[in-house]
Write a structure and sequence with these properties.
Length: about 120
Amino acid sequence: MFNEQVKVILYADDVKKASAFWQSLGFIELSFEELDGSQVAEVAMSETSTTHLVIYDRAFIQKNDDEATEPSPALIFGSDDMISLYKKLQTVGVQLGDLTQIGEEYIFNFVDTDGNYFVVSGN
């Protein structure tokens, strides 16, 4: 049976830089390893989070399995305080889309250091 643990693979040109990006958004780095000449980092929103992002070196993966790195994942993060989160991401210099209200929810997107887009929705 499946459990509640979900790990999402992200590919980055610079694993350390990508991990630092997510940490600047408030994520924590759970692990950073050197594996077979490549780097792998795992980050999460907290130590008890059931969703983790596992960041692999894009060049290493393409060299070993050129079909594995595409397409990029489409992730939607949730937030209970969209305005504060949006302001925090502005403060740390993250490239952001417009904060838009749709019905009772807000939504915006942001871009990581490798040009991947992510969405946040909530109140």
